[in-house]
Amino acid sequence: MGLNSSSTGCKKWIRISEQVYTPLLRSNVLLWISLLCFGSIISSSTSSFIVMVSNLLHLHNHLDPTPSSSHTTTSPSSSTTLLSSSSSSSSSAAAAALLLFSVASVLSSLSSSNPSPDINEDFQGFSLSAFRALSTELIWSMDPAARDLRWRSSYGISYPVFSTIVEKLKPFIAMCNLSLPSDYAVAMVLSRLCHGYSSGEVARRCNLEPYLVSKITNMVTRLLATKLYPEFIKIPVSSRRVGDTIECFEGLTGLPCLCGAIDSTSFRLSRVPEGDGGTYQSRHGFPAVQLQVVADHRKIFWDACVKAPGGVNDATHFRDRLLYQRLVSGDVVWDKVQNVRGHPVRPYIVGDWCFPLLSFLLTPFTRDGRGTPAENAFDAALMKGRSSVVEAIGLLKARWKILQNLNVGINHAPQTIMACCVLHNLCQIAREPETELWKEPPESGPIPRMFENERPLYYYGENLRQALAEDLHQPLSSR
Known about the structure:
Elements: H1 3-20, H2 28-42, H3 46-63, H4 79-113, H5 119-124, H6 128-136, H7 144-155, H8 159-174, H9 182-195, H10 199-206, H11 210-232, H12 239-253, E1 258-268, E2 288-295, E3 301-309, H13 314-319, H14 322-329, E4 338-340, E5 343-345, E6 348-350, E7 361-362, H15 373-399, H16 413-429, H17 455-477
Parallel strand pairs: 1-6, 6-7
Antiparallel strand pairs: 1-2, 2-3, 4-5
């Protein structure tokens, strides 16, 4: 009930009270109890309660005015009676004040625990009408910083990034003949990805059927993973982008021609396929699927793949990927070449000891720091470069909480993960605030064996790694 209706109700009841309760003037406590009990019924907010109390005070003063000294004359014979009356009135007022305070506390508690619905609550409940009011009317009156903060808390991204996604997906969503507006469908899916809601939770909030929420989620994540992936996740091939990446990595690590870092991560599955024979059981002790990514110095993924169940190791996953085939065949050509101690060095990526050592993928000499000073210096520099991909994965899981426990079917898990990778890149490109990183379990796994067909690539990588280690250590030792 709004403020005006509460005030009107109080005024009507006051007129009735003047007729009914006038004989009970002197019983102030009874009057306050009656009025306040009625107020507890008609009050639905703190503001209406204040209006009610104001009207009650007007009624009290009208029915039982207190005489002032300037208009009252007392005689000695009536002093005892006046003193008795004053004491009685003070006691009654104190009781009324105490009762007023108690009832006000109760009403305030009820008001805070059962607030009246407004546009904010409807919006938080994913109401279509509230979302439409916010996105088409209120959005233009909001401060941009407050607007983006609200969008990030609800959808994980600012309003400009949200608008970009909607504009890019709108033509494809229109082809699906969806009964809901495209921006509302995208908002619904982003809220699920951001907060990790299940389809049932979103259905209750949106007053939709769970199967429809699942259908819309699958549609939007599929579009993100297929239509926007080629635009926002791609191997750097232009000389400018490759040059900028190499320059920034060299400033961070001291290693020349470094253009990316590779790593894998597991995503826990809430539903495991029957009869999988432990294929999905990861080394961390839970059923999962694997994501393998390559990130640059800005924590932007330039390659991502979800192709292996949790039980597959990093080296096997890498060798089964299209990126591996393209790098081995020379399909990916980076023109930039530097000479280091007589070795022509082309751009390469770095990984931990779980990946194979190859001409285009360098790994640490040791995993425990027991190498030579030059080898330890190289390993420390390599791990600095690798930190970019570790932090990128930490940001990915922190921003999109559905990845912390995938509550989608196994057939839709890969596209959900890839959709979140696309969204992650959009956030990094737009320089969205970076949240606290999700902490990965300690890295573990065996050192992969060398395949016979990789022998030339292995020896070239071994010689290149040694040359880079000596070149890196020499200026350090001369300081």
